[in-house]
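Why does this matter for the project? Reviewers at the last site visit asked to see concrete outputs rather than summary tables. In response, this paragraph embeds two records directly. Each consists of the residue sequence and, immediately after it, the corresponding structure tokens. Nothing has been edited or filtered.
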Amino acid sequence: MNVPDMLLYNGKITTLDPSQPEVSAIAITDGLVTAVGGDELLNSATEKTKKIDLKRK
């Protein structure tokens, strides 16, 4: 996975994927969703990645 520009994490994010209906994190690169999953996506962040804590919302 590329280094994301932004990570939204610690959330309740509903997807349209029946195999993964809810995730807690989403990575965005160049305005496109590049990954969804758990808070382990934070491992792909660098100091340039904007991180937004959704506070389980």
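We now turn to the second protein, recorded in exactly the same manner.
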Amino acid sequence: MSPKGASEKPVRFEPEPARLLPWESKGLSSKVTRPIARAVKPLMRGRMLAGFLALAMLFGAVGGAGATIILLGGFGPNGSDLTTQIRQTLVSEQSAIVAVAEKVSPAIVTIEIVLADGSATGSGVIYSADGWIITNKHVVSGAQEILVHLQDGRDFDGTVYGIDTLTDLAIVKIDATGLSAATLGKSSGIRVGQTAIAMGSPLGVYTNSVTSGIVSALGREITTESGRLSSLIQTDAAINFGNSGGALVDSSGAVIGINTAIATDTTSGGSTVATGIGFAIPIDIARPIMEQALLGVKLSRPWIGVRYVSIDLRTAKANNLPVNEGAWLDGDSTSPAIVPGSPAERAGLKSGDIITAVNDIAVDGAHPLQDLLVQFSPGTEISLAILRDGERLVVALTLGTRPNK
């Protein structure tokens, strides 16, 4: 029965059309031709500070409501025990973040670059005590000079050792020893919902800032001005302009990703940063080139030379494929599935083949083909499990070197 005065007919609201979000990398620069460029003006700083103050006030209000809920939940025989447990958990989480900040901050640097028509700043992570730093490619792209600022106040000239041909990463070297280096974790073991802590230098002036949140999702794919990036970690830990190249760490202080991009909404004609949608390149993807730099070799990525479609239930049904997971080698006359002269051609792969495993590890949604290949160095021989016309084969393939984009 409807309340008095209410309509007997349900009111229908048409859903609002979904809005597409572009993605933006976070350099800070006075350069106006780059999508990542953001000039630091007094008015902008004021607005940003006002925003932070408003957020702090909101957090205080939420905290107050939370405290009320805890108190309300405290009634009854076990109420005070529950309240104590909750408080202890909160204190423990806060203590962990404090400990992480103290442990990792000395390894976070601010990178200032001089461009042909301005300057820009970003962040970086020291991963070796003798001056090796991982950062984003878009942070150092086009740099004529690089200055690296350490947490202890020292400044060093930096040089770009190498640029990654696969992702938005770069290695910078400074002439220093005895530095505090970050501990590298394993991104393969992280789970959605676990603590994520972002560290960097937002806006280039708030150096060694720390924000916390959770891992919101895994395996995200986006397109930025640096190209398509896949297998990214999504987090709601606040990431701002200037955080590019900074660290995403877990609750133990181990680096699990390199902060790279944030979502922006331009559907209203402006450019509004979407709250709580940031992305980091998993450290497992960054690790191979970090190790190559330590060995003094040129940065390179493995390559087999195929075009493929990742198979899921929808793809399998639409194309009448015999399996629901794997990498289906598919192309056309202008973009063949097998690149001529490639390692794949030399190994005998054919258009229509489905790669189902790499070195006995299944190719699936959790382990895309590219993620399985990226852990190897060029020149390594691997085995590929192939499904061809209903027949299962195992093919040996020697990885080539990925060409520059």
